Amino acid sequence: MKDSSEELKQALSYLLEERLPICEVSSLKEQGFKIKKPTRMTAVLIALYKKAVSGDLSAIKELRSILSGTGSDFKEGAVTIVDDIPS
Fold first, then answer.
1. DSSP 3-state assignment of 67?
2. Residue 77, pLDDT above cutoff 60
3. Number of compact structural domains in the chain
4. Using CA atoms, how far apart are residues 32 and 29, in angstroms rounded to an integer?
5. 86 occurs within a structural domain
6. Once rounded to an integer, what is the mean pLDDT over residues 4-8?
7. Helix, strand, or coil here: 80?
8. Fewer CB within 10 Å: N-end or C-end of the chain?
9. pTM for the model
């Protein structure tokens, strides 16, 4: 069972490191996000941020754990969050 979960984690990590298509990057930039490294991880972080801004308590807690370093293995510097984006 452990091998299976390690394989899943490795596959997910690989998928999250893939670059975003140019159209998705353009869309996010139009929304006000300054993206340094446009990967799927970036898109996940932005989606989590949007949920947190809308008041989703679990998203807020997840962001707090990521920022404090106790959360998932999200890499720093992937995205700059601009807090004046309308929901």
1. helix
2. no
3. 1
4. 5
5. no
6. 87
7. strand
8. N
9. 0.67
Assess if residue 75 is contained within a domain.
yes
Q: What is the pLDDT of residue 26?
A: 93
Tokens, residue 53:
């801004």
Q: And the tokens for 14?
A: 């690989």
Cβ neighbours of 71 (radius 10 Å) = 13
* Gap between the Cα atoms of 75 and 61, Å rounded: 17
CA-only gyration radius of the chain, Å: 14
HEC per residue, 16-64: HCCECCHHHHHHHHHCCCEECCCEHHHHHHHHHHHHHHCCCHHHHHHHH
Q: Which amino acid appears at position 27 of this protein?
A: S
Query: What is the rounded CA–CA span in Å between residue 48 and residue 53?
Result: 9
The residue type of 72 is S
